[in-house]
Amino acid sequence: MVRACRTERGFSLPEVMIAVAxxxxxxxxxxxxxxxxxxxxxxxxxxxxxxxxxxxxxxxxAQDIRMAGYGMTAPVGACGTAIVPxxxxxxxxxxxxxGIRIVVPTTVSTLNAPVVGPFxxxxxxxxxxxxxxxxxxxxxxxxxISIGGVQTTQVNGAPAVxxxxxxxxxxxxxxxxxxxxxxxRCITYAVIRxxxxxxxxxxxxxxxxxxxxNAACNVAASPCVxxxxxxxxxxxxxxCDGCTGTGVPxxxxxxxxxxxxxxxxDFVTNNTWAVGFMVPATIRLVQINxxxxxxxxxxxxxxxxxxxxxSTPITLSDHDPTADVGYYNPATYGQFxxxxxxxxxxxxxxxxxx
Length: 354
Hints:
Number of helices: 4
Largest sheet: 7 strands, antiparallel
Strand content: 25-35%
């Protein structure tokens, strides 16, 4: 028994050192794979969040622009027309994001019974609680409404289940039960960039904001609310029919660049839309250009340890950010990856053009 124990041998020191070295190499490799997978997962999450943000912003904008006006027959709030372009610099290249104001329909309720002219009361299917909820959003006396997108009028007095009108709608106007009643509001879209002095973005600037206002969305008393984080820039261009030449619309987009073909050169990026035939009522197409940046510095920038390693400025439409006073910084601009989305929207309900 003693002789057998003496013949047993353990690992020698060199063998142990070799085993430890091999194990360390395997563990280091495994850690590198796990760390790389984690970084890739985080990066993919940020990319997905950025793409989702820019798509959400585009969908909301496109929907409101498509329905702009909704048969309006008089100015609504700060909107004298269905679309009010808010170009950053109408005289030339922009040095910041554009904005836009749009008359947008919001559903109030539907008719509880048929109405046949003459009438000056609309019976709604809404309950008193439903009316109170929309009143809390600002629906009040003199608010502009549209009945089925056909008849535009105003609210007479405090809104109620039986909605009073200031004037009698004469015969032969008639609407069936179930016809929707819309509240027309002047909606402003704008981009708030850091530094967000009024904390409109809730600490997530830049962001896209939307709201009902008679002033800019970046003022201290702004009622605008953030709807999409990370929106770094927004630029609009407009194609019109009847804005050049004799001013007579022919059902085709005006040929702005003389190519005798519809192309991107037919979209106007800089204009006051208040001179000659170039007025909002002629706008037929709106080109929306959105750019979103990721919420954190990119992995490429972090791993290199060098700020601005992707610092080539991105020009969106007529906006070159290098001219942005107080915003563009070549040492930090390239730390954030960006996504661009462009869409052309046809305006269907332009309504009044003043």
